[in-house]
Design a protein that fits this description.
By secondary structure, the protein is mainly α. Among the domains are: 92 residues, no CATH class; 129 residues, no CATH class. Helices cover 66% and strands 4% of the residues. It contains 33 helices and six strands. The chain has a six-stranded mixed β-sheet, with helices on one face. The radius of gyration is 31 Å and the shape is elongated. The two termini are 58 Å apart. The mean pLDDT is 90. It binds one DNA strand through helix 6, helix 8, helix 10, helix 12 and helix 14.
Length: 629
DNA sequence: GTAGGGTTAG
């Protein structure tokens, strides 16, 4: 504003002094007024120019476009006496940016001369409006016309390729070839990001190592690449490398922080997450909605729902993603009523929910056994918000019906779905068959699952659990043999517990921990004390085809029990006994769930388990999931 | 005139 006033003063004094204003001075004035957002006034000045040059016209067109006035820009463009390439390109990119690609295309083929910028503008237009195929076909048309792509072309094309679900190998190779030939940091970073988004994290790393003069963007792209490919430990390690290698030259920013926080929430590493939060405050990193959403998610996934609530409430501006984060946070903690309250608030604030909002809401209903409410929301989302349900939403509904015990309804729903059910849907049905001991349906569903993915370990484990739950040990063995024959390995269950900021990991039957003997003995003691309270080991959850004694032994060495016992014996003698927080990579086992209820009562300690689905707060013999899990 | 990195997801 002050700069604009200064400009006005200069303009006024030019007139006062009676200076001769040639077209160059006029153009500078036009440019100044346009850039200060005064395109209306610039237009008056423009009309006073006796012989405007084509640059004057271009500046005015640009000015109208930047103030969002496409109509005025178009009118000027139409009456221009002479159009140079820049005029055409300006108009073309304006159409491209606001998504009017039919107009952009028309202009592109109408223009008498085209240059590299014209091609780039059209390609970028397609790419930014998610019309990736057209971006690529325009690119190849450009190559056929004998035009050599530059940095800008490749940046657009690379970003188009990274968003296509499965780009052809030859396309990727060709683009990477051009990028390597250009070899600038920004282009290589774009390629790195592309590989990361395609899930080719090793290729991404190879490019990263190739960049000699890495800047903040390159580091951030690689860190977020790791984080988005479920490699949180690598993300954090890379951040440490960045700090030790170039602490002076490169300073982490809010984008770095977002990836770090997301990594912490994946690991359930609260202490580390708090450290990042402190870092943000200490270095005054700008706190925006992205960061807030990431923190809300992190604190919730690390078990501190109150911190999530506070951060959410203190944010003055809340975008959809932030609302979604809070909804999801409450959902995984089973706070169904509060989830619905937040959603009502969101509607009152006129924030339009999106597809992800409803995934969170349906999830909450499913975790709380609110089947009717969930079905109601499912139809609201279609009727009121015109959201076409994706496979994820159907998955939520199946899950919802299953957990509410409506197995038949769930199966009918799957049969009537307009989309082909995927393995997640069948998986939800199958695990529900386990809790309702429905062998017949389980076998049918398992067949569907094996058709879709013959090597998925979960199918075999679930089916074997169904058989085990009804004591069909011979069938359990059959499944196990099949697994062996197919060479399917069960993903090992892994539980971690954080003590004094150090993460201790355990796998089932783990004997690698230095204190394993002590841990085993301590658990056996606990079992002796909870059995009289009514605990009965549920051997149906033991996967192995062993005799009764061994079955109980295997059950006693599940990773979550080891983690619990370790936390327990490590804090037994300390005065302050905070809740024990365990993070498990798979779903918590049913027997472990029962055992923990008893332990929380026996020891008067709060136990919090985060499994791959949700949180379980065990307190005084009860779990917050109320049996819906 | 065209331009590389971020949150939420069964």
């Amino acid at each position: 504003m002050t700069i604009c006033r200064l400009g006005q003063q200069i303009h006024a004094s030019l007139i006062k002094n009676g200076s001769v204003l040639d077209v160059f001075v006029f153009n500078s004035l036009l440019d100044m007024y346009c850039k200060c957002g005064q395109s209306e006034f610039a237009m008056k000045v423009f009309q006073g120019i006796s012989e405007p040059s084509s640059t004057s016209w271009n500046i005015m067109i640009c000015g109208f476009l930047s103030s969002g006035d496409l109509m005025s820009a178009q009118k000027l463009f139409d009456v221009m006496p002479y159009r140079d390439v820049s005029s055409w390109n300006t108009m073309l990119s304006a159409y491209a940016k606001c998504g009017e690609l039919e107009n952009a295309k028309r202009l592109f083929y109408e223009m008498p001369v085209r240059n590299l910028v014209s091609w780039n503008a059209l390609i970028a237009g397609f790419s930014q409006n998610e019309r990736f195929d057209e971006a690529l076909s325009t690119f190849s048309e450009m190559l056929k016309a004998g035009i050599r792509p530059d940095k800008t072309t490749i940046l657009s094309v690379v970003s188009a390729v990274s968003t296509i679900s499965s780009p052809g190998d030859d396309v990727v190779k060709q683009v990477v070839g051009f990028a390597r030939a250009i070899g600038s940091v920004s282009v290589l970073t774009a390629v790195l990001d592309m590989y990361a988004k395609l899930g080719r994290i090793d290729d991404a790393r190879a490019i990263f190592d190739e960049i000699s003069e890495k800047d903040l963007v390159s580091w951030n792209a690689m860190i977020s690449g790791y984080s988005q490919n479920q490699k949180p430990a690598e993300a954090i390690q890379l951040f440490r490398d960045m700090q030790s290698e170039c602490r002076v030259k490169i300073k982490a920013d809010k984008l770095t922080m977002v990836s770090l926080i997301s990594s912490c929430s994946q690991m359930g590493a609260l202490a580390l997450g708090e450290w990042v939060h402190t870092y943000i405050e200490k270095f005054g990193i700008e706190f925006d909605e992205y960061l807030a959403a990431a923190l809300v998610d992190m604190y919730a996934k690390c078990g501190d729902l109150d911190r999530s609530r506070r951060i959410f409430q203190e944010m003055p501006r809340k975008d959809v993603a932030l609302w979604n984060s809070m909804i999801k946070a409450l959902a995984i903690h089973g706070e169904v009523k509060e989830t619905l309250k937040i959603f009502a608030q969101m509607e009152r604030n006129s924030v339009t929910p999106n597809d992800i909002t409803f995934i969170g809401l349906l999830n909450a209903c499913s975790h709380g056994g609110f089947a009717e409410k969930g079905l109601e929301l499912f139809s609201l989302m279609q009727s009121q918000y015109q959201i076409v349900p994706r496979i994820e939403h159907y998955g939520c509904i199946v899950d919802l019906l299953c957990r509410a015990g409506r197995l038949t309804d769930a199966y009918d729903f799957v049969k009537k779905m307009p989309i082909k059910p995927d393995k997640v849907i069948w998986g939800a049905l199958l695990s529900s068959c386990r809790s309702h001991q429905n062998v017949e349906l389980a076998e049918e569903v398992a067949r569907k699952l094996t058709e879709l993915d013959p090597n998925h370990d979960g199918t075999y484990v679930l089916l074997s659990n169904v058989y085990a739950s009804v004591g069909k040990w011979r069938d359990v063995k059959k499944v196990r043999d099949q697994m062996k024959a197919q060479n399917v390995q069960k993903a090992p269950g892994c539980s971690a517990v954080e003590l004094d900021g150090v993460l201790h990991e355990f796998t089932a039957g783990d004997k690698t921990h230095p204190r394993f003997e002590e841990i085993y003995k301590a658990w056996d003691e606990i079992v002796k004390r909870i059995k009289p309270m009514g605990y009965e080991p549920d051997k149906g959850f033991s996967l192995k085809n062993l005799d009764e004694v061994d079955k109980e032994e295997a059950l006693n060495r599940h990773s979550e029990k080891l983690a619990l016992t370790f936390a327990f014996i490590s804090t037994e003698h300390s005065q302050h006994k905070p809740a024990i927080k365990i993070v498990k990579n798979l779903r918590i086992c049913g027997d472990c769930h029962t055992a923990m209820e008893f332990v929380s009562k026996l020891e008067g300690r709060e136990i919090i388990v985060r499994d791959r689905n949700r949180f379980h707060h065990f307190k005084a013999g009860l779990c917050s999931c109320g049996g819906y899990w």
